[in-house]
Write a structure and sequence with these properties.
The protein is an alpha/beta fold. It contains 16 helices and 35 strands.
Length: about 600
């Protein structure tokens, strides 16, 4: 209520506004919330809930001796970039008690969940003591376990994982000269780089056809090249079949017969959700993951779940990333704090985009949204745009390309994006991820008002340029041919310079530089009449800029034409090791 009350002041009588203080809803008296599992999701939920409810009893049960550590920093400690292992420990039970009044119990393993009784059975792994703990609300954050594929000899003491602080300490102390990393996902690549940095002769083995399987092949090729530049020996399309234990070192045999000596073996072949307890309690799962709704609720009353072991009811793809786990923990805490006030007071958990980033030597690779495999499996209609614009003004020293790929639906929706480059990758993928979350379409990227100065960007940022290409496709001004659709017998109009052309070109191609094309259209007509016929031909340059000019020239002249997305830069990356066998050197037809 606001009232005017006369006050005698040196300046006369003034009005004073008195407002009734707004009080937050009172929580249930002595509400007890038990959190199973610390680190990202669990600790975020506990910390947020304390900020929302000072009176709640919050108990965190962590089976290891570390309740809050920087698991994403572990590879950098192994490689020596982080020197002090204490830097990996973010909080201890003591600091959490002092700051947030949390009852954090380490070395405490939950052995049974009874949703009907609202209780969990807990075992102290140090003392062997067992006890029952009741709860009003239970938050499960069990995380994931390292997958152990059926490899003979995997029980060797030289085999390590990299998921805990103790794992990192063991790898940092390991000695020898030869290392084998099994699995070239994010952790595998980071581990391989770290070991190579320390002087190990490092082999990286990946069962998929290329490293970082979520990346498209034309982007992953750039990562493979950088790994090899770091001294890492990359083996793709093969798997480890057996590990022979030796006195001095082990021997890893691959499916192609290759034998690798190893003083150290890092197992990084993926993870599986740690959900046996939830399944035993009758909590609904799918594919081994705990099913949750958009408020983090499981099928059991007053039981919530967050993090790597969960999957939403409205989507099939689990996302094992720290960012989503932290954010989900916070949102679940809000749901519990607002219990009794309806879902409208708590924000729903959004569908994850899987935005991720990794450093490989001097390169960065990042992604968000879906890749080709997921889109094809879903039967989605889309096209793909490749651009290779510099991260900042070309005239400013140090300009280097940011290779961007986006998948665009036929309605213009941005379905996924990937980027690889030496600089500026993080900024671009974050901009596109934000645009996706906001529901912007690919042509809307043109209008994003992004910061520009010569050391930082371009007046037309690489993100803007990618949107421009997508807009041209959606309006029908441009028809793209992707590197996946290009065959050796396709007729190619190569509009690069003669020097570029002779260094490598497609077999069935005609070379006319784009600056000469308007004056040499008769040569194009003769070539079409003699060699091309009714087929469309493909215009190609180095990266797509000159071929766009050439494409418009020949299309205006009435030719049936498409353009190679991303030019020969994309094509070489798509072909990978096959590029030298496919591309022809020499003058060819010009």
């Amino acid at each position: 209520m606001c009232v005017n009350a006369p006050l005698d002041t040196p300046g006369g009588i003034i009005g004073v506004c008195r407002r009734k203080p707004v009080l937050e809803p009172e929580s249930e008296p002595n509400m007890r919330v038990v959190v199973v599992g610390g680190v990202a999701g669990g600790m975020s939920a506990a910390a947020r809930l304390r900020r929302r409810d000072e009176g709640a009893e919050i108990i965190v049960l962590e089976r290891s001796k570390y309740v809050s550590f920087a698991n994403c920093g572990l590879p950098y400690y192994v490689g020596g970039e982080i020197e002090d292992p204490a830097k990996l420990l973010l909080h201890t039970p003591q600091t959490l008690k002092a700051a947030l009044n949390l009852d954090v119990r380490i070395n405490s393993e939950v052995t049974e969940i009874d949703p009907a009784a609202h209780s969990v059975q807990v075992a102290d792994t140090e003392t062997g003591e067992a006890y029952t703990l009741t709860y009003d609300h239970l938050i499960l954050s069990p995380g994931a376990l390292a997958s152990r594929p059926p490899i003979d000899g995997l029980d060797s003491p030289r085999v390590h994982t990299l998921r805990t602080v103790d794992d990192a300490l063991a790898l940092r102390e390991a000695s020898g000269t030869c290392a084998v990393v099994l699995g070239a996902g994010f952790i595998g690549i980071e581990a391989a780089e770290a070991l190579a940095q320390r002087g190990f002769d490092t082999h990286l083995v990946e069962y998929a056809e290329h490293v970082l399987p979520p990346l498209e092949v034309e982007m992953a090729t750039l990562v493979t090249q950088e790994l090899r530049a770091l001294g890492v020996r990359v083996h793709t399309g093969v798997a480890a079949q057996s590990i022979a234990h030796g006195d001095d070192r082990d021997s890893v045999t691959l499916s192609d017969g290759t034998e690798l000596s190893a003083d150290l073996i890092v197992l990084s072949t993926g993870v599986r959700p740690d959900t046996a307890l939830a399944e035993a309690a009758g909590i609904e799962t799918r594919g081994g993951y705990i099913l949750v709704d958009d408020r983090g609720r499981t099928s059991a009353g007053d039981v919530y779940a967050v993090g790597d072991a969960t999957v939403g009811r409205d989507h099939d793809r689990p996302v094992a990333l720290a960012g989503p786990a932290n954010r989900c923990g916070r949102l679940v805490a809000d749901v519990i704090a607002d219990a009794g006030h309806g879902d409208a007071t708590a924000r729903p958990i959004p569908r994850p985009q899987g935005t991720a980033i990794v450093r490989i030597g001097g390169l960065t690779a990042a992604m968000t949204g879906e890749n080709r495999q997921a889109l094809d499996a879903a039967g989605t209609r889309y096209f793909t745009v490749h651009t290779h614009a510099n991260q900042h003004a070309g005239y400013f020293p140090g300009a280097k390309p940011v290779h961007i790929l986006i998948h665009v639906g036929t309605d213009g929706q941005i379905l996924g994006a990937q980027a690889v480059g030496a600089d500026g990758v993080d900024r671009r993928i974050d901009v596109i991820a934000t645009a996706m979350r906001a529901g912007l379409k690919a042509p809307d990227l043109i209008d994003l008002d992004l910061a520009y100065a010569p050391p930082y960007g371009q007046a037309k940022d690489p993100v803007n340029q990618t949107g421009m290409v997508a807009h041209n496709v959606l309006t029908g001004e441009l028809i793209l041919t992707g590197p996946d659709a290009l065959t050796e017998d396709m007729p190619i109009l190569d509009v690069r310079t003669m020097g570029e052309y002779t260094a490598g070109h497609m077999p069935n191609s005609l070379n006319i530089p784009h600056t000469q094309l308007r004056d040499r259209l008769d040569e194009v007509r003769t070539w079409v009449d003699e060699s091309v016929g009714e087929r469309p031909f493909v215009v190609m340059c180095a990266a797509g800029v000159r071929s766009w000019i050439g494409y418009r020239i020949v299309r205006a002249a009435g030719f049936n034409v498409t353009m190679l997305s991303g030019g020969i830069q994309t094509l070489r990356a798509w072909l990978g090791a096959k590029a030298e066998a496919v591309l022809v050197t020499g003058e060819g037809r010009a």
